[in-house]
Amino acid sequence: MTIAIRELDHLVLTVADIDATVAFYTQVLGMEKVRFGDPARTALIFGSQKINLHPAAAPFEPRAANPTPGSADLCFITDTALDTVIDTLRDAGVDLVHGPVDRTGAIGGLRSVYVRDPDENLIEISNREETAQ
User: Fold this and answer.
1) Angle at the Cα of 24 from the Cα atoms of 92 and 99, rounded to 5 degrees
2) Which of 18, 39, 73, 81 is 20 to 30 A off residue 133, Cα-Cα?
3) In the chain, what are the domains?
4) Tell me: the pLDDT tens digits for 23-57?
5) Model pTM greater than 0.70?
6) Share of the chain residues as helix, strand and coil, in percent rounded to the nearest 5
7) What is the spatial distance between Cα 22 and Cα 65, in angstroms, rounded to a whole number?
8) Is the dihedral of CA 11, 123, 104, 44 positive or negative?
């Protein structure tokens, strides 16, 4: 018998600067900052997913064996046309690392661009094949 995983509830990013990370993900990618727990922690909400933010200087326990800022590679799906995504990134002063390019996602084709967040994590922003522009 195996365990049947249904969905991803949240993931954790270890970050050098919580405020810089929150600014990027809220102002550029439109996520929402939330505070939760005791002691108070910071997270980012989008859709039904959450990214918990752990400060590199004092990560919460339990934690990954080697929590390191800049080690993540994440893909986010948007319904916003990729041309608009590119313009929005440019207006926010965010440099494109790569793209637009065709990729394969979890359930089909993607059209993607790549940027880096304040910790140098690689962030892929994608349209699903049926909405790619």
Assistant:
1) 60
2) 73
3) 10-57+71-131 (3.10.180.10)
4) 999 999 999 999 998 888 999 999 999 999 999 98
5) yes
6) 20, 40, 45
7) 24
8) positive
